[in-house]
Amino acid sequence: MKSSHIPQLPELPEQEAPHFAALDLGSNSFHLITARLVNHDLQAVQKFKQKVGLGAGLKRNGYLSEKAINRGLDALKLCAQRLEGFPSEQVKVVATHTLREALNSELFLARAAEVLPYPIAIISGHEEARLIYHGVAQTTAGTGQRLVVDIGGGSTEIISGHGFETDYLASRSLGCVTYTERFFNTPRVTAKRFKKALIAARRELEPVAQALRKFHHQHFFGTSGTIKALSLWAEKQAGATLGTIPLTELYRLRDRCIELEHVQQFSQLGVDEARIPLLAAGVAILIAIMEEFEISVLTAHDAALREGVLYELADSRLNHRDVRQRTIESLATRYFVDRAQAQRVRDCALDMLAQVRENWEQRGKQPKVFLSWSSLLHEVGLQIN
Fold it and tell me: Integer distance in angstroms from the first to the last C-alpha of the chain?
C-alpha cells in the first residue's frame, strides 16, 4: 500500500500506532482489511474475503431472501472474530448495491447488529464511487487524468479524476450477479445471449460516456474480483503484460466461451474457479465498458472501496480532518456563501434535531455533521443558478 505521493500520516511510537479496519459488504463478497500505521503509512495486517452471494438472494419483489440474510450473518460472525478488540472509532463498515436496493435492508441491519458490534453504513452509489477512486488514488503513483471502473456484483462505478480529486462520479445498475441472472441464467452460453448483454450494458453506459468525453484520460484502471481474474487469465493464456487486459483478448475469451457453450466446460479456460459462474456476465460488461469508453488496454488494480474507506478513516482520525469537510469548505468559498446566514440556518436545524433525535433515533455525531454541512451549502444552488 506504500506510495511516494500518499499524504503523510503522523509518526507515532509503535506501541501507540493504532490499527484501523474497513469492511465492505458487497453484492458478491464481503471484504475485510485491517492495517496499522508504520513509517507514516498504513501497512496491511490482514485481508479477509468471504463469498456471500448477497445479490443473488435479492428477489424480484425487492426483498432479500432469508437464505441470503443468513449467509451474510454467517460471514459477519467471521469478520467479528477478526475485529475483536478494535475500538469502534477505528472501524468502518459500508454496504453497497444489494442493501441499497433491498426493501428489507433494515431487517438485515437489525440482525447484523446482534453479531457485529459496529454500525453498518449503507452508502450511495456516488459515495461508493468516490471511495473507490480514493482507494486507487492513495495506492498509485503518477500524474494525469485517471479513469477508474469497478464492476461489482450489483452495480458498476465509473470515476474520472486527477490526483486525489474526483471530477466525475457515476454508478450504474449493471453487475456480474444481476447480469448473470438476467442474461446467463442457464448453463448454456450463446452468441445471442452475449449480444443482448452487451447491448443492454452499452445502453446503460452511453450517457456516462457522453459526460466523459470532455476529459482526456492518460490512465485507465479497473478494480474488483472480476477484473483481477480476467487480468490473470490474460497474462497466463494470452501472454499479456502483467496486470493488463487488452480488449482484443476479451473478444477472444468471449468467443471461446461461446465455443465451449456450457458453463460446466469453462474450467478449461484457466479462469479462477470461483469466478466461473459469473464469467460470461463479467466479460460482457467489461467489453461494453472498454468499447463505450474507447479503452484498448485496461490496467487491473488491487485497491478499491475498502482501501478508500481505510485511508479516509485513518486520515480523519489521525489528522482530525475529513476530505468531505475540505470539499464543502472549498465549495462554500468558491460560491461566496453567506457564512453568517449559514450559521443561523445551522443553529436552527440543530435545535430542531435536538427535539426529535431520540424519537427518530438519530444519535451520535453524524447527523449533526451532515446538518452542518447542508447548512453551509444550502445557498450554493442559488449561486450556480
Answer: 42
Neighbouring C-beta atoms of residue 256, cutoff 10 Å: 15
Annotated domain spans of the chain: 19-126, 142-302, 323-384
Q: Is 165 helix (H, G, I), strand (E, B) or coil?
A: strand
Dist. CA 127–CA 119, nearest whole Å: 17
Render pLDDT for 291-304 as a digit per residue (tens, 0 to 9).
999 999 999 998 88
Q: Name the strand (E) or helix (H) holding 101.
A: helix 97-101
Q: State pLDDT tens for residues 42-89.
A: 888 999 999 999 999 999 899 999 999 999 999 999 999 999 999 999
The three-state secondary structure class of 354 is helix
CB atoms within 10 A of CB 205: 23
Interatomic CA distance for residues 127 and 292, integer angstroms = 23
How far is it, in rounded angstroms, from Cα 235 to Cα 250? 12
CA gap 97, 62 in Å, rounded: 12
CA distance linking residue 134 with residue 159, whole number of Å = 10
CA distance 120 to 30: 13
Beta bridge partners of 37: 42
Tell me if the domain spanning 19-126 has CATH number 3.30.420.40: yes
Report the DSSP beta bridge partners of residue 165.
162
Q: Which three cell numbers stand for residue 188?
A: 448454456
Residue/partner pairs of 326-332 with CB below 8 Å, 24 or more apart: 328/373, 328/376, 328/377, 329/376, 331/377, 331/380, 332/376, 332/377, 332/380
Rg (C-alpha) for the chain, rounded Å, is: 22
CA gap 357, 122 in Å, rounded: 20
Domain 142-302 has CATH 3.30.420.150: yes
| DSSP-assigned states of every residue in 145-159 | EEEEEEE-SS-EEEE
pTM: predicted TM-score of the whole model, two decimal places: 0.79
Q: For residue 167, with 0-12 CB atoms within 10 Å meaning exposed, 13-18 middle and 19 or more buried, which class applies?
A: middle
Write the DSSP assignment of 50-83 as a string of letters. Answer: EE--TGGGB-TTSPBPHHHHHHHHHHHHHHHHHT
Identical topology for domains 19-126 and 142-302: yes
CA distance 43 to 53: 29
